[in-house]
Design a protein that fits this description.
The structure is a single chain. With 180 residues, this protein is α+β, with helices and mostly antiparallel strands. The chain has a single domain, classed as Heat Shock Protein 90, CATH 3.30.565.10. Strands 3-4-2-1-5-6 form a six-stranded mixed beta sheet. Helix 1 runs parallel beside helix 4 and helix 4 packs antiparallel against helix 6. The protein is globular, with a radius of gyration of 16 Å. It starts with a helix and ends with a helix.
Length: 180
């Protein structure tokens, strides 16, 4: 995948498939440490230790529609290619956290990409799931939370076309403010 946002979308979709009702996405740029850390955490069904150990194998998937699962192996490879790595913590009934660390200035690090489109797609296609996105860049941050948006909408669903456009615009403005 050419953009890290596509990896984030894939991992978040895994969370939803695992029954998550809340998915938290954190992207933290630390220039002093020269790292970009991406964390996707959910409250889904979680995995046992055996599954966590096997999930990096591209020939292991819980999907019945195909026999390979490339999302986590490709995300791990993207991080490792930039001098970083990927860690997964999970337990049955306790959700899953996927954390990938990338060398921020590494020439092979893919750009973060279209987080506005990613968050809009996740919110619109999964209107009953809450998404929290925190983007931190040094001393600046941007925060997106569908629970807050939902509270202001007074019953209007997240997948309403005007709400979808608002979500995209809101995240684009937040990203732009951080100087993407």
């Amino acid at each position: 995948m050419r953009e890290l946002s596509m990896h984030i979308l894939d991992i978040a979709q895994n969370s939803i498939a695992a029954g998550a009702k809340m998915v938290r996405i954190d992207v933290v740029e630390d220039h002093a440490a020269d790292t970009m850390t991406i964390t996707v955490a959910d409250d889904g069904s979680g995995m046992d230790l055996n599954t966590v150990e096997r999930v990096r194998d591209p020939f292991v998937t819980s999907r019945t529609t195909r026999e390979v699962g490339l999302g986590i192996p490709l995300f791990a490879a993207a991080a490792e290619r930039c001098g970083g790595g990927l860690a997964i913590t999970s337990a049955p009934g306790a959700g899953t956290t996927v954390r990938a660390v990338f060398g921020l200035s590494h020439i092979d690090r893919a750009p973060l990409g279209d987080m506005a489109g990613t968050l809009m797609a996740l919110s619109v296609c999964n209107p009953d799931v809450d998404f929290v996105y925190n983007r931190v860049r040094e001393d600046e941050s941007f925060h997106f939370d569908t629970r807050k948006i939902r509270a202001e909408l007074d019953g209007v669903p997240l997948n309403h076309p005007e709400v979808a456009a608002f979500i995209r615009d809101y995240v684009e403005q937040g990203e732009r403010r951080l100087g993407r």
